[in-house]
Amino acid sequence: MKKQLFLMRHGETLFNQLKKVQGACDSPLTEKGIVQAHQAREFFQENGIQFDHLYSSTQERACDTLEIITNNKSYQRLKELKEMGFGSFEGEQQFLQPQGKEYFENFYLQFGGESMAMVQKRMTTALYQIMAQEDHQNVLVMSHNGACISFLQTIWQGDEADLIRSFPNCAIFILTYENHTFCLEDIIDPSIKKSIL
């Protein structure tokens, strides 16, 4: 039976606004981030989308976004859904980070951070375990840009260059799950109510 997973990035945070590296560290949602979460909530309401199970990264920015969208419904927090850890780069200005996909593979390990493979493994394991549960038919999972991309890389069928980018805050990745297989159906930016796939 075909199930649906709505995987999301959290709303804009103070560190997003200040262009600071934000992985394992956290910062609160901005006013814009709160508005974005309300826009996502409206998208789900307008499209008659209801969830039987809710999950979030343990990080405040993800939990706060989920709570706004679901009007404080009960949900489960999972560390496996957290953003990639950047070690001693945490909280620094983004321009100090090296550019290029190859730097996300293993570069941050030497600074006490994670490799892309580590993030990919924990994200993928968690999402397959979530969707394999029989009563999970329509699930919302709140996570982070890098963590979402790391998972999507494992199922992406197109040009990888189209995937390695910064998706808008509160971007909604709509996936189906059937026969132990995920398929990306669409990516929605709820602030414009349009597909950005």
Automatic annotation (TrEMBL):
Highest taxon listed in the record's lineage: Bacteria
Protein name listed in UniProt: Histidine phosphatase family protein
